[in-house]
Amino acid sequence: MTRKIAVLYKSKHGSTRKYAEWIAHQLSADLFDAKIISLKELNNYQTIIFGGFLYAGCIAGVNLLTANMDKLVGKQIIVFAVGCAPERKENIRHVFLKNFAANIRDRVALFYLRGAFNFQKLNLLDKLLICILKTKIKYAKSEKLDEDSKGFLEVCENPMDWTNRDYIEPLVDFVIKLK
């Protein structure tokens, strides 16, 4: 018997949706925008994969799962977070601890996928926040800037797209091993 797999996503600028589409295709899974699926529908699936973009360390939309873990008993829960920063274990651990309460952490597998950034596509509030952060970083002495800060300043001037189909392979392999 094949496991029924649902891939859900919450995307703002398209990177998370792109990864969700690739994952769903690779696993022959059903794909849903998280805004349009109900918990009742999720009960038809053994494996639930959720993707959300990162915003200040929070995975957008993941509360659909975290607030309903009692209704998802027996389901395999895999989450992928999409962000702009390079992948670092300590950052991923911070995201994991911030987004998942201690009593559900053993039921969730988290993966990080690098997305894209285009300052011009941001809404006004996000542009304002980015400008404040840029100003703060620019006033720091340049010899004190770490690689992440330098990279952030660069990407604010030049849009970047780090999405790569190969990045989904660890997640896909993980799900295949569940079968």
UniProtKB/TrEMBL annotation:
Pfam families: Flavodoxin_5
Gene3D superfamilies per the UniProt record, alphabetical: 3.40.50.360
Residue ranges that the Swiss-Prot or TrEMBL entry lists as coiled coil: none
Family annotation (PROSITE patterns): FLAVODOXIN
Gene Ontology molecular function: any one: menaquinone-dependent protoporphyrinogen oxidase activity
InterPro entries, A to Z: Flavodoxin_CS, Flavodoxin_dom, Flavoprotein-like_sf, Protoporphyrinogen_IX_DH
UniProt keyword terms in alphabetical order: Membrane, Transmembrane, Transmembrane helix
GO biological process, one term: heme biosynthetic process
Protein known as: Flavodoxin domain-containing protein
Source taxonomy: unclassified sequences, metagenomes, ecological metagenomes
TM stretches of this protein: 48-66
